[in-house]
């Protein structure tokens, strides 16, 4: 198959490397120093179960549109930051509409798939999430990833009948050592992942702590759990019912998973925009729609918006 990965950062590059090792054709879309390094030196991906280093097909979005048709690809994997989705669709909408190529979103949040479906239609929109993976660019052209790196995917907003094409795609990904399962209710799965994202991403960015440190701390662990509960309340606005058992399951999952830096913490350290609006903002807006409180999520989001950082103590001098 021919795969196109839009937003070839830590997660996109890991999945792309897996697909290349399985014999598929992969084009990586990136920018800046990371793109230049991939073009000149190839791509390096380090993972506990894989060491990849090879030349790859990497280009900018402008070059892709100028030199290739959307129909050249069998699947587009979208791994952009959620805040970039609307802009990307506005820029590439005409290019996307000249084909039937499906788009699989592997992004944070619960608002990407509706935007994609508005542009290319529901039949081409695949909701998805990357589960139990941490992946970051540690240097241009150099990725570090960890975790089982599973994928859950489904047609947006849900599947009403068996879907042979989607099952075939899942078989292809599984054969490439990307553990994949198909769900008939991707909206529920996206909200279930948001339990974790809203629980740890903002707090991690605020405190500078990894996920294990957050959940193991008596006070911060309670805050993580409370923000997950607020996420479950927010989901009802989208007619998704997340049960107390769902909250407990996701809290246990992130508590037991490897200690990782969240993507939001990495973004804050590097001075990049945070996905606040797409994670905590999505929870706050939907709680407000239902006249439900979300005090923990609101507090952490506001502190991040104010960009409050720890002040290093300096001894007084005489």
Describe the structure in brief.
The chain folds into two domains: 2-184, Rossmann fold; 188-305, N-(1-d-carboxylethyl)-l-norvaline Dehydrogenase, domain 2 (Orthogonal Bundle). 47% of the residues lie in helices and 18% in strands. The protein has helices at 10-21, 32-41, 61-67, 85-96, 112-120, 164-175, 186-207, 211-216, 218-235, 244-256, 263-269, 280-289, 295-305; strands at 2-6, 25-29, 43-47, 50-54, 57-59, 75-78, 103-105, 125-131, 134-139, 142-146, 150-155, 180-182.
Main beta-sheet annotation: 8 strands, mixed
The tally of domains stands at 2
Q: Percent helix among the residues?
A: 40-55%
Provide a count of the helices.
13
Write down the overall mean pLDDT: 95
Shape: globular
- H-E order: EHEHEEEHEHEHEEEEHEHHHHHHH
Strand percentage, roughly? 15-25%
CATH C-level class of the largest domain: Alpha Beta
Supply Rg. Answer: 20 Å
Please name the fourth-level CATH homologous superfamily of the largest domain: NAD(P)-binding Rossmann-like Domain
CATH A-level architecture of the largest domain: 3-Layer(aba) Sandwich
And the CATH topology of the largest domain? Rossmann fold
Q: Can you list the strand order of the major beta sheet? A: 5-2-1-6-7-8-11-12
Which stretches are poorly predicted, pLDDT < 50 over at least 5 residues?
A: none
What is the tally of beta strands? Answer: 12
Structural class: alpha/beta
Distance between the termini: 71 Å
EC number: 1.1.1.169
Enzyme class: oxidoreductase
Catalytic activity: (R)-pantoate + NADP(+) = 2-dehydropantoate + NADPH + H(+)
Keywords: NADP, Oxidoreductase, Pantothenate biosynthesis
């Amino acid at each position: 198959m021919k795969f196109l990965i839009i937003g070839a950062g830590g997660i996109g590059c890991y999945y792309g490397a897996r697909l290349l090792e399985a014999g598929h054709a992969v084009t990586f879309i990136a920018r800046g120093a990371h793109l230049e390094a991939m073009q000149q030196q190839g791509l390096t991906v380090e993972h506990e179960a894989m060491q990849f280093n090879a030349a790859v097909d990497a280009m900018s979005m402008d070059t892709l549109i100028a030199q290739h048709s959307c129909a050249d690809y069998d699947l587009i994997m979208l791994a952009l930051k959620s805040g970039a989705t609307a802009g990307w669709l506005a820029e590439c909408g005409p290019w996307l509409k000249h084909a039937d190529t499906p788009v699989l979103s592997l992004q944070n949040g619960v608002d990407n798939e509706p935007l994609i479906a508005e542009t290319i239609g529901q039949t081409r929109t695949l909701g998805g999430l990357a589960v139990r993976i941490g992946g970051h660019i540690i240097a241009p052209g150099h990725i570090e990833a960890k975790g089982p790196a599973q994928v859950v995917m489904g047609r947006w907003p849900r599947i009403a009948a068996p879907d042979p094409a989607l099952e075939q795609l899942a078989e292809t990904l599984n054969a490439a050592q990307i553990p994949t399962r198909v769900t008939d209710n991707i909206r529920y799965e996206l909200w279930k992942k948001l339990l974790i994202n809203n629980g740890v991403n903002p707090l991690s960015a605020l405190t500078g702590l990894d996920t294990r440190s957050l959940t193991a701390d008596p006070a911060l662990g309670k805050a993580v759990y409370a923000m997950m509960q607020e996420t479950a309340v927010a989901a009802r606005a989208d007619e998704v019912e997340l049960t107390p058992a769902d909250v407990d399951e996701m809290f246990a999952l992130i508590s037991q998973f490897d200690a990782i830096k969240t993507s939001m913490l990495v973004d804050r350290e590097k001075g990049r925009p945070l996905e606040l609006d797409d994670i905590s903002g999505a929870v706050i807006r939907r709680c407000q729609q239902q006249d439900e409180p979300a005090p923990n999520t609101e507090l952490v989001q506001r502190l991040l918006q104010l960009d409050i950082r720890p002040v290093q103590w300096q001894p007084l001098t005489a």
